[in-house]
Amino acid sequence: MAVCIAVIAKENYPLYIRSVPTENELKFHYTVHTSLDVVDEKISAMGKALVDQRELYLGLLYPTEDYKVYGYVTNSKVKFVMVVDSSNTALRDNEIRSMFRKLHNSYTDIMCNPFYNPGDRIQSRAFDTMVNSMMMQVC
Amino acid sequence: MSRQGGRGTESKKMYWYLPFISPSASLQLMNSELFTLTYGALVTQLCKDYENDDDVNKQLDKMGYNIGVRLIEDFLARSNVGRCHDFRETADVIAKIAFKMYLGITPSITNWSPGGDEFSLILENNPLVDFVELPDNHSTLIYSNLLCGVLRGALEMVQMAVDVKFVQDTLKGDSVTEIRMKFIRRIEDNLPAGEECCPFPFPWRLPMLSFQL
Fold first, then answer.
1. A57-84 burial code (b ≥16 CB/10 A, e <16)
2. Which residues pair with residue A19 across a beta bridge?
3. Dist. CA B104–CA B31, nearest whole Å
4. How many helices (DSSP H) and strands (DSSP E) are in chain A?
5. Closest partner residue to B133 among A56, A105, A125, by Cβ?
6. Which candidate from B4, B41, B131 shows the least CB-CB separation from A109?
7. Which long-range contacts (CB under 8 A, 24 or more apart) does B101-105 make?
8. Residue by residue, what is the 3-state secondary structure of A74-115?
9. Any idea where the domains of chain A sit in the sequence?
10. Taking every pair of C-alpha atoms in chain B, what is the biggest distance, in angstroms?
11. Rounded to whole angstroms, how far apart are CA atoms A102 and A133?
């Protein structure tokens, strides 16, 4: 269960960012912004190796004391960043991978919508529903 | 099942009949996504050109009409259906043969009016609208209006004037897509001068779908 999910465009501006609980939104925006540096570092590091073997899932970007940040890059340089609560230790790597795969699938569906212009903010109801299902339920 | 590698296999395939000039290749599968994306590009370009949903709807209907008047010949050549004796048979042929042949779906026929001249086609899934979400500024746009034009044009070529419109649309939040078809009248042929006295059907007329009163 994620606490914050963000979709970042190729030019490094956010296409979609949503966090739950909403009062600390600015902090999550800042966390995602700083994680972009780590993403770029990982991409360039792997780029020196064989490019076709670069995996889409980047893994844990950096842990803070409260949160862990995971990253995923598509081949079109669109980045998905997910912030997860550190106290939730039950989340395994496989689950994070499958969440990113679902995000990627939904993102592809949005791209196929003829009314969506690539580069616009994402305003799709289907995408919102899917992200809500992945966010942590805060009572 | 991972979608990253298998996106093509999971999407629906359309049955694409090749013309009769190559008898060895009778059936080919085409990925429906290119078709869906092409139709989407068409609609969005029309929206940009006209900026008014009603004009776009009219244009889609006109384009559909032009497709329909040509498509009926192809349909009759491939399907070899004979003359339909009433509107119910016409409805069956449209739903079970025509839709299956061209879109790969089989709508169900419901809601017959008491006079037998109106019915509804219920489509559970519409291949034209995969992945589409209507934005709020186009709430009156009838996205699949091309289909209405196609049906109208095709039936006009077989001497039936019909009125086709969408009653429900999944893009607008309904659970199914419903197309209402109403028979208006039979179009009488304009006989060439000098032949009005002949009571028998002319031999050079191909067998057609026509409503016999």
1. ebeebeeeeebbbbbbbbeeebbbbbbb
2. A4
3. 12
4. 3, 5
5. A125
6. B131
7. B101/B15, B101/B17, B101/B75, B102/B71, B102/B75, B103/B14, B103/B127, B103/B128, B104/B12, B104/B13, B104/B14, B104/B15, B104/B32
8. CCCCCEEEEEEECCCCCCCHHHHHHHHHHHHHHHHHHHHCCC
9. 2-133
10. 70
11. 11
Chain B residues touching residue A115 (CB < 8 angstroms): 40, 44, 132-135, 138
Structure tokens of A9?
A: 């465009």
All residue ranges of chain A with pLDDT < 50 are 139
Hey, is the C-beta of B4 within 8 angstroms of any chain A C-beta? yes
Length in residues, chain A: 139
ipTM: 0.77
Structure tokens at A79: 């980045």
Kindly report the CA angle at B72 between B66 and B76, in degrees rounded to 5? 165
Q: What is the pLDDT of residues B20-71, one digit of tens each?
A: 444 443 455 677 888 899 999 999 999 999 988 999 999 999 999 999 999 9
Query: CA-CA distance, A114 to A132, in Å (whole number)?
Result: 24
pLDDT average, residue stretch B171-183: 91
Q: Which CATH number is associated with domain A2-133?
A: 3.30.450.70
What pLDDT digit, counting tens, does each position of B184-194 carry?
988 887 655 55
Strands B160-168 and A79-85: unpaired
Decide: A43 and A122 in contact? Cβ < 8 Å. no
